[in-house]
Amino acid sequence: MKILVIDDSAAIRQSISYILQQEGYETVEASDGLEALGKLDGADKFDCIVTDVNMPNMDGITFIRKARENPKFKFTPILVLTTESQGSKMNEGKEAGATGWIVKPFSADKLLAVVKKVAE
Amino acid sequence: MANTGEALRIILSGAYGIERAAELASALRAALQDAKGRPGLLIELDEVEELDLPAVQLLYAARRSCVRRGLAFGFAGAINPEVSKRLLAGGLVSRRVADGEALAEAFIGFSAIGA
Amino acid sequence: MIDKFKEAFREEAYELLTQLETILLELEADPEKPELINAAFRAIHTIKGSAGMFGFEKPGRFAHDLENLLDACRAGRRAVDKQVIDLTLRARDKIRSMIECDESGGPFDEEAQGLIQAFRAAVEGRPDPVQGAGQSVAAVAEAPKAEPRALEGFRIRFRPARDLFKDGTRPLKLLDELRALGELSVVADLSAVPTLEEMDPEACYAGWEAILSTDKGLDAVKDVFIFVEGRGELSIESLGELDTEEGGAKRLGEILLERGAVEKAELDKALQSQRKLGEVLVETKAVKPEQLQAALAEQEHLKRAQERHVEGSSSVRVASEKLDELVDLVGELVTLQARLTRTSGQIADQALGAISEQLERLVSQLRDTAMSVRMLPIGSTFSKFRRVVRDLSRELGKEVELYTSGEDTELDKTVIERLNDPLVHIIRNSLDHGVETPEERLAAGKPRGGSIRLAASHSGATVEIAVSDDGKGMDLEAILRKARERGLIGPHEELPRDEALQLIFRPGFSTAKTVSAVSGRGVGMDVVKREIDALGGSVKLESRDGRGSTVILFIPLTLAIIEGLLVRIGEERYVMPLATVEACVELERADKDGEGATSLIRYRDELIPVVDLREAFAVPGECPELRQVVVANDQGTRSGYVVDAVIGDYQTVIKPLGRIFKEAEGISGATILGDGTVALIVDHKRVNAQARRPKARSA
Fold it and tell me: Number of C-alpha atoms within 13 angstroms, CB side, residue C127?
C-alpha cells in the first residue's frame, strides 16, 4: 500500500508519513501540488493520496483536478486535509474529485480510520 | 435453432476493479460482435481474482445485450472463494457460489434480465 | 500527536512567524496588496492547523481567532489598517512566546484574552464577551463519550449518483463499514443496468437496500456515508429498538406498511381473512411478490438479530473431549471406508462399487464437517502475545509494538494449542535479539520504537504464520562463527546465506552474547523447529541486514487426519505422510552403494541420500531382493526411504503415542488400519536426521 502525502508543513507531512508507516503503509511526500504532480508522473499507482488544501505554488483543489485528468489516478482515493473553518473547502474538494476529508487537528487513530475507510 | 456450433468463450483473468472497467467493456463489446452466428457467450471465470461492482455491472449489461440478440449468456469455471465472498458481502449474489453455473442463478435479478 | 515531531513543528512555526512579521511590515507600507494579506492568512492558518496536532492546542485556539480576523480582511469585510497590522504583530509575538514556553493547554492569560477580544471587536465591529473565546474549537478535542446503547434496527436505502466512482468512492467498501457496525443483510438492485452499447462502464448503476442491526446508534450509521452525502439518494430509517417486545416481533403487516408496499385499507381487509397475510396480499395483488420477499427478509433479519443479541450467540458448547471422540470415530470410519473401497475394487461387483463410492462421498463430507467443528480462529492466542511483548520490552528497556493481522484465520484447536509455545519463543527471540534498543535504533536512523508483526494467513491446505521484526536482522557472521565453535559445521566450511541462516534451528545453538533472562536459557530455536516438525509443518527464516528478520511457520490445517502412503517392511506396516512423497522407485540390492542405514542412490540424474527403514527401525526378517524407495521432497530437498513394498494411498487418523513412546525416534504417531492392526506413522525428517548424525561426525 503506497500513499502520497502532500502538505507544505514538513512537521505535518512527516508525522502523517510516520503514522502511516507504523501501520505498514509505504509513503511518498510532496510539499505542494506542483511537486505532487511530479510524483504522480513518476509512479504507476498510489493506493491513496492525502493532500492539504492551502499550499503555495499549487493548492490542493487544483492538484486534485489535475490528478483526476491523469488516467492512472482517475479513481484513486484522495483525502483532503481541512480545518474546522473551511467547511466550504470540503464541498470544493468533493467537486474537484476528492473522495473524502480529514479535519485538522486529528489524531493518529482518526487518520488511520479515514484512510482505511477509502483505501482498499 | 438457427445458430450452430459452440458458444463463444471469453476468458477473464486477474482483478477487475474500476480501473479495468473500460477495458472489460470493450472486450465484451467485441465479443458480442464475434458471437454472431454462435449460440451465445460463455464467460470463463476460473482465473478471476476480483470482481468489483463495475465489472459485475458489465456482466449484467452483457446479458441484457445478449438477450436482445437472442444469444445465450452464461458463466463457466470455478469461482475463487474470495470473489464469492466479496460478491455476497456486496449483496450482489443471494448465496456463496462455487462455479459459473451457480453464479448465474445467484446474481440478484440476473435471470430476470430481458424477461 | 507525536513528540518526535514537536520540535519540527516548533521550528516550522518560528519560520512562519518570522515570515509573517516581514509580510506585516510590507503590508504596513502597502495595505492594498491582496497577495500579502493572503500570505499572512496562510501563515497563521498553517500554524493553527498544525499546532493542535503537536500538543500546542492553546496557541492553536489563539491562532484561530486571529485567523478569523485575517480572513475578514482577505474577504474584504474588513479594511487592512494600522489597527489590524498592529494587533496581528502583537498576536504574532504572543503565539511565539506560547510555543517557546511550551504552553500546550489551559486558560489564556490576560494579555491573550485581551487580544482575542480585540480580534473579535475588529472583525465584528462590536465588543465580545471574553468568556466565549475559542470555546468552539476547544470543544473539538473532547470527543463525546460513546454510551452503551440498545440494539437498534435500521433500514438503509442507497442509490448512488451515476458518477459515484469518479471521486474514488467504492460503494462496496461502504457496505463493509456498515457490516463492521453490526449484523447486515443487504441486497443489491442492478435492474438499472442498460445494455452494453448504452452503458457507461465507469458509471454506477447499482443501488442497495440493507437492514442493519447495531448498538452503535444512528450517528455511527450516518458516519459511514459521510463522504457520499448528496451523492445520490440515501435514506436511513430507524426500525426502533430490538430488545423490546414490539421491536423484535414486528408483524409482517407493519413492515409492509412502513415500507410503503401496501395501503392501510388493503392491509386491514387482508387481516380479516384467516389465512396467511403474505399469501392473501400477493393473491389480491395488493403487494408484489418481490416486495413481500423483501419484507419477509427484513422480518427474518430482525428476528435473528434479536435472538443473537439476547442469547449472545446461537452456538452450543460442547466439551472438547466429546469433539475429540467424534473426530476419532470419524477417523475410524474413514479408515474402514478405505478398506471397503479396496475390497469392493477386488470383488468388482457393480452394485457394491456404487454403494462404496456413495459412502466415500458421504464419509469425506462428514470428515470435513467434523474437522471444521474443531477449527478455531487463531486470534484468541494473539492477545496473549501482546502481553508478552509489553512485559518483555519493558524488561529489556526496548520500545516495541506488536501488530497482528489475520486473527480470523482458522486452525485446528489442537494445532493452535501446540503453537503457543513456539510462537512465544519466536517472539521472545525477536524482542531479545532482533529489535534494537531505542538508542541503537536512533543511531541507525530508525524510529525509536520497534515493531513486531504477527500475521496469519491461509495458503492452500496450510496456514502461514509469520513473525517479523524491524530490528537489525540476523548477523550472518556471528551465526557462522558460533556454528563453527559448536562444531555444527567444519572450521573452514562456508555455507550459502540461506543455509547458514537455518543453522539457528540446529540443536544447541544460541547467538546471544550473554545469557539473558529472556532467551538463551539453554533452549533455542531448535525447540521451535522440533515442535513445528511434530505438527507436520516447517519453518523458514528470512533476514535482511539492518531491516529485520522474519520467521515463517507453515502449519497444516488439521492434524488429526493425514493423507498417507501405506508401506510394508517385513510383517509391519507403516504410513508415510503423502504431502511430501514425490515418487516411488524400485531398488535392487545391487543399486545401493554402501552398507548400513544410509547410502546414496541415483534419482533423475541426482544423487539423493536414502535411509533404509528396515535398518533404521531394526525390523527383523529376511530382506527381499526387490524393494522400493519412497522419494520425499521437502521444499526442494529430496531424500529416499527404502521399504519392502508400497501398498498404496491411505487416509488415516493419527492417534497420539502414549507417554512411553514420546521419545520414539522417527515415529510421530500410530493409526489403526481397517483390519484392526496398528501401523506406525513415519516422521521421515527425523529418521533422516537421526540416521545421518553419527556419520556426519565421523566425516
Answer: 5
